[in-house]
Amino acid sequence: MTTPTLPARLVAGCGYLGHRVAASWHGQGYETHAITRSIDRAAAFRAEGLHPVQLDLADPKSDSLPEADVVLWAVGFDRDAGIPRERVWLDGLQWLTEHLSVAPRRFIYVSSTSVYGEGDRELVDESTATNPVTEGGLCCVKAEHLLRELCAKRHPETQVVVLRLAGIYGPDRLLRRVTDLQQQNPLPGDPDHWLNLIHVDDAVRMVNFAANAATVPDVINVVNQHTLTRQQYYTALAELVSAPPPVFQPANEVDATDQQRRRSRGGNKRVASAFREQFDVGFEFDNVATGLRDAVMRTSAPS
């Protein structure tokens, strides 16, 4: 008996999350196309069984894209590239949407919980109005609206699913250099402020759910159920790497740059998901202590 061919999928943004999703889709048997501007990464993707699409979303030269039943946009912002955020996150998104050769069944857009603003320890979920205060949060809201408008006009049969991700952590990404803890370098930020997090493997699980499930909400907050404070997070991490307890910089010594970084990480709100009450995606690392242990064990080199 001939095995039925699964529909193709397209990933724009093959970074920390997108590359893992592409590998997962390939492993499930989907023909997976991955956009990259790098010749070397294109070759690496091809060796992994992916179908590279060499394209710079900040300056696209191609006229068309491969057909795809599901499109994932997981494009990050490269500060070192010297390209304005809007040029990729808005102009690049518009170009990609307008150049899809067929209407996908679903277009999954990876957004951020920074769209909810800073907060003052309040609880927010998908029903909370957006109120971004950072450049990234503002751009995410604009991109969410832009994508919905474009698909409504060009691809009305496409469901746009917005995944608002909390801070991603996992192997080789522990939010802070372990050496800072080992050397007791003071950490900026209020130790009692909330950290909203999601392990990268659970983020992949949510993307797979959004791609595969028969029914999916239009907006989903992707976040661990058990929010913890910065003090709790760094204390757990210090214990795992046999470092002294974390030391935090006094509030009066935190400069404007550090304050801006805190704002960009989401301020001091607790993010939840009403969606989690309706469906069980099966997160493995809702307990951040367990997720941290996994991340430390799988980190390839001291960070």
TrEMBL record:
SUPFAM superfamilies, per database record: NAD(P)-binding Rossmann-fold domains
InterPro entries membership: Epimerase_deHydtase, NAD(P)-bd_dom_sf, NAD(P)-dependent_oxidoreduct
Region ranges (Disordered): 248-271
Cellular component aspect of the GO annotation: cytoplasm
GO molecular function: aldehyde dehydrogenase (NAD+) activity
Ranges of residues in domain NAD-dependent epimerase/dehydratase: 10-222
Protein name: NAD-dependent epimerase/dehydratase domain-containing protein
Origin organism lineage: Bacteria, Pseudomonadati, Planctomycetota, Planctomycetia, Planctomycetales
